[in-house]
Amino acid sequence: MTHVDLPASLLKRKAVVYVRQSTPAQVQLNRESQRRQYELVEEARRRGFRDVEVIDDDLGRSASGTVARPGFDKLVAWLCAGDVGAILCLDASRLARNGRDWHHLLELCGLVEARVIDLDGVYNPCRPNDRLLLGMKGSISEFELNILRTRMYEAVRSKARRGELRIGVPIGYIWHREIGLGLDPDARVQEAVRQIFSRFRQLGSARQTHLALHREGMHFPRPSDGRKLTALDWTPIRYRNVISVLKNPFYAGAYAYGKSKSRTAVVDGRAHKTYGHIRPLDEYDVLLKDHHEGYIDWGIYERNQKQLAINAYGQRDGAKSGRGGRSLLIGLMTCGQCGHRLRVAYRGRYPYPVYQCIGRRAHGLPRCMCFGGQRVDTAIARELMRVVQPIAIQAALVAERTHMETQREQQRILELELQQARYEASLAERRYAACDPDNRLIAAQLEKNWETSLRRVSEYEARLDDIKTHNSATPTPDFTGLAEDLDAAWSSSSVTMRTRQQLVRALINDTTVNIDEADCEIVLTIHWKGGRHSTLRLRKPQSGEHECVTSDDALAIIESMASRCEHIAATLNRMGLPTAQGKSWTAKRVGSIRRVRGIHAYKSAEKDGEWLTLTEAAKASNVTAHRIRSLIAAGILPAQQVVPGAPYQINASHLRDPRVATAMRRKGRPCQSPPESQIPMFTDT
User: CA within 20 to 30 Å of 454's CA: 223, 513, 606, 662, which one?
Assistant: First the structure.
């Protein structure tokens, strides 16, 4: 470095030594570069500066302009205050790798007549020649950065296109020294990954897969040493574990590079770059299928991605996943007039679903259609049972096989966990045995670790015994019996609406709905999986009409028997006839039906003298009620009874019949009328 005498006015100011390295790795490994930069303090003193400041706040920060540099900002602030006489650095690239910061710094140095000193000499930004030279140094520094970055990125991409770049791999894979990328040799890790794919194939939902595995107490590995994957911690499975396994193409045997991208935005006049923005699959930099052994094939991976996309409930006008509720076809019905998805609303005191299309409301037009959903859901369910009936036995056998496989997988997971726990207990025992007994500080901790491992072994053994006992004691469900009566299986109280919705979505792609105003019918065009189509026509419910209608049998009994409401309610309950909402009858509910339907009292309750109850008939004839009941039982006195157990209704004219009157006057003899050919043993006198 050449020696140039500096003005005395500059030497009275402070000299600033700016120290910077671009990455944390350089800070840790490139110690020689740090030492050379700190040695500039002695160079500043040799040139006559007494006050020397070192700014090393930007160690590990890039000077490309996309990262905030508090040390550089401090340097700019001191320059603006006129406190800096000279800036010392190894080369121009230490100060800035972008034109904005570099030229801004030179402009400030020219205003306060500060010098820039590097290994080549001393530069005065006020002089045109020095300013030109410094400008060239800054441009070369920026250009050099771009050249280095381009060369490194192209080399990385070239290696990635061949599938040889050893990038970070997900749980279940490791880089082998000889064969490259392969499955993790740990059988427990492999089984944990396969269990996620198996359960997702059964449930069709990432969240339900996580809940099911969490209920079973499954654990999932997590690297405890960063990305090296040489040591794993087993923790309770989380949702992020499930969704990351399902969405990662590595598990389908594909080598993927460039799955995310960076975005640059201008924030407060400075470029701000963010990373980790996920790209679509078709925008990956490199995607090599069949690159390595996969847990699933590529076709299954694509089907899983479609299922996950369908499950994304928030997408506008997209197909919705089955999430329960009261409606069977929510998210599966499309308006035949405007093409929008039909929405579901719930109305009434006892909410019932109503399907409606509001696609035209955005344009100020009335809705396309609106109709009750229970009748449509019932018709679709009936059509579904008709289609499934021919393959019901085969489906039952598949369900039974799946049930047995699920039990075996659960037992296999516990066996692997027990094997791992026994190994850890054996390892803890060997460590304790190898310890010096006199060193109690270490021996006590090793003994504690050994006891913890033994307790974990006992816990897994108990869980494994429990699941074996449960599987052997619990009988296998009769899937074949369910196949013979699909309607009973569909209507079973143990089958949730979510399960019914998932079954419908497994067989039906979509349903197009049109309204035939002329015939007042709902026209349903069902698009089945596989490309077939079928059409159903249903009567459209009128305004105010709903599906909660009392059965005709119950109405017939109420009309015929309309006595006291509590008697009618008791009779209907004995016959097992529920209300329209499936509830038991009460006097209040019977009275409500009578008021709505306009059902008046039954014949004997009119009190016009034509029809009498059993008690009224006994009082009119001056006999006991038992006598009247005996005459009715003997068939002498005609009486009406709506249903067995209901009150008798007797016509008053039948009481004046001579045959009935004779039977009432007879005492001590049977009530039956003697045959005409029989000769009486005793006379009536």
Answer: 223
Place of tokens 């089907």: 303
Query: In angstroms, rounded to a whole number, what is the distance separating the alpha carbons of residues 651 and 633?
Result: 16
In this structure, are residues 368 and 360 in contact, taking their beta carbons and an 8 Å threshold?
yes
**Mean per-residue pLDDT of the chain:** 80
Are 262 and 273 a contacting pair, CB within 8 Å? yes
Give the single-character DSSP code of 341.
Answer: B
Q: What is the DSSP letter of 80?
A: H
Residue pLDDT, tens place only, 314-339: 555 455 556 667 788 887 888 888 88
Kindly list the distances between the CA atom of residue 35 and the CA atoms of 32, 40, 95, 644, in Å, as whole numbers in the listed order.
Answer: 5, 9, 17, 108
pTM of the model: 0.56
Q: How far apart are CA 122 and CA 117, in angstroms?
A: 5
What are the tokens at 18?
């700016």
Question: Parallel, antiparallel, or unpaired for β 333-335 and 508-516?
Answer: parallel
Q: Of 22, 93, 327, 604, which is the active-site residue?
A: 22
Q: Which phi and psi (to 5°) does residue 528 adopt?
A: -80, 160
**Residue 141 bears catalytic tag:** no
Cβ neighbours for 662, distance < 8 A, ≥ 6 positions apart: none
- Evaluate the CA torsion angle 634, 639, 642, 648 in order and state its sign: negative
What are the distances in angstroms from CA 338 to CA 277, 365, 381, 452? 35, 12, 26, 66
CA distance 221 to 207: 19
CA distances from 276 to 67, 571, 596 (A): 16, 70, 65
